Task: inverse folding
């Protein structure tokens, strides 16, 4: 789905699973449980990704968009 892809990128910030596919989700969870390095990578990249959605970041982007409309 587009919303999830926007937030997670192409598995850059987390693993995506197919909608309605419990086996795919279980496999992704197992992958994360089994791979400490991958967990660490997603933990760090996810923490950094949250900053893209902070009030300050969104405010700056929105103000720029409004200026561009003038």
Result:
């Amino acid at each position: 789905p587009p919303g999830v892809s926007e937030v997670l990128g192409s598995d850059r910030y987390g693993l995506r699973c197919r909608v309605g596919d419990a086996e795919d989700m279980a496999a992704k969870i197992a992958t994360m449980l089994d791979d400490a390095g991958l967990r660490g990578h997603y933990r760090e990249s996810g923490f950094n990704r949250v900053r893209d959605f902070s009030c300050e970041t969104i405010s700056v982007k929105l103000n720029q968009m409004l200026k561009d409309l003038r």
About this structure: The mean pLDDT is 88.
